[in-house]
Amino acid sequence: MLEITPTLSIPDDELVERFVRSGGPGGQNVNKVSTAVELRFDIAGSTALPAEVKARLLARRDRRITAEGVLVLSAQRFRTQDRNREDARARLAALVAAATVAPKKRVATKPTKGSKERRLGAKRERASVKRQRSASAWDRE
User: Fold this and answer.
1) What is the pLDDT of residues 55-101, one digit of tens each?
2) Domain 2-100: assigned CATH number
3) Residue 60 in contact with residue 103, Cβ under 8 Å?
4) Which of 8, 15, 28, 57 has the fewest Cβ atoms surrounding its Cβ within 10 A?
5) Dihedral, CA atoms, 51, 103, 10, 64, nearest 10 degrees?
6) Span 22-36, mean pLDDT?
7) How confident is the model at residue 16, as a pLDDT?
8) In angstroms, how far is the first alpha carbon of the chain from the final one?
9) Phi-psi region of 69 (alpha: psi -120 to 50; beta: other; left: phi over 0)
10) Which parts pass through the membrane (predicted)?
11) Are 116 and 67 in contact (CB under 8 A)?
């Protein structure tokens, strides 16, 4: 079980882990050993997540989420399979935990009378500067 919060956890059978070869420097070890982890989690088909958490996760415009609603995380920061596996699971837990918090509703506000007057005054001032730049009658002679 991958624990997200004290009340929410994802069972291991909903996570699909695949071990692949890592890229980057490392010589013969990188070419021989599959230490990188590709963790897949089907958000849309998950039974462990509440509907609102699923909706928030799927609404994210994240390139790691496929069109079918599968989140794909790849971890290859570390040299060992276990550390990369833990890293991928920790990142998934952090992502899901962030989606459990409902965003605050935006309270609509109006600009104050003073801010409107300041804005219009600045516009008038700018217009007069531009007007003064134009060719005056004494410049044309």
Assistant:
1) 888 888 888 888 887 888 888 888 788 888 889 888 888 888 888 88
2) 3.30.160.20
3) no
4) 28
5) 100
6) 74
7) 84
8) 87
9) left
10) none
11) no
Q: Which residues pair with 20 in a beta bridge?
A: 36
Backbone angles phi, psi at 106, to 5 degrees: -80, 130
Residue identified by tokens 């490392």 is 26
> Residue 133 has what pLDDT?
86
Burial code (b: 16+ CB inside 10 Å, e: under 16) for 97-114 equals eebbeeeeeeeeeeeeee
pTM, two decimals, is 0.65
Give phi and psi for 140, each to the nearest 5: -75, -15
Q: Which two tokens stand for residue 59?
A: 């609404």
Pair of tokens at residue 24 = 């980057």
- Residue pair 84/35 in contact (Cβ under 8 Å)? The answer is yes
Report the amino acid identity of residue 68. E
